[in-house]
Write a structure and sequence with these properties.
108 residues, 3 helices, globular, 3-stranded antiparallel β-sheet, single chain, alpha+beta
């Protein structure tokens, strides 16, 4: 369950998607990383309520301030702690702020 006063969420993405995210917002996709981690493989946007997700890559990080109508549509991701997802709901670019410019390189 998402607390009503929690409006800030975080999203991690490969830097190759930066231009599209900043121009078009977040669009649900079925990413390759979902195949090994998630039971359900379908178009989604994954968000965390803490900026602590480690993908083992130096990815871009986005801060997303969601309006209450979208927050009500968040579903708890039972496979990753403090994580949520949206099915088939786009997040407008006006809610998104790039807070870390990644290199796309491995952090190992």
């Amino acid at each position: 369950m998402v607390k009503e006063n929690s409006t800030i969420f975080y999203h991690v993405a490969n830097p190759i998607f930066r231009k599209n995210i900043l121009a078009r917002g977040l669009i649900p996709l079925a990413g390759e990383s979902q195949k090994s981690i998630h039971t359900f493989y379908r178009k989604r946007i994954f968000l965390k309520n803490k900026n602590d997700y480690d993908s083992t890559w130096d990815d871009d990080r986005y801060e997303i301030k969601l309006p209450k109508d979208i927050i009500r549509k968040l579903r708890v991701d039972k496979e990753i702690k403090n994580s949520f997802y949206l099915d088939n709901i786009r997040i407008n670019k006006k809610y998104i702020k790039l807070i870390h410019v990644g290199t796309g390189e491995s952090t190992f």
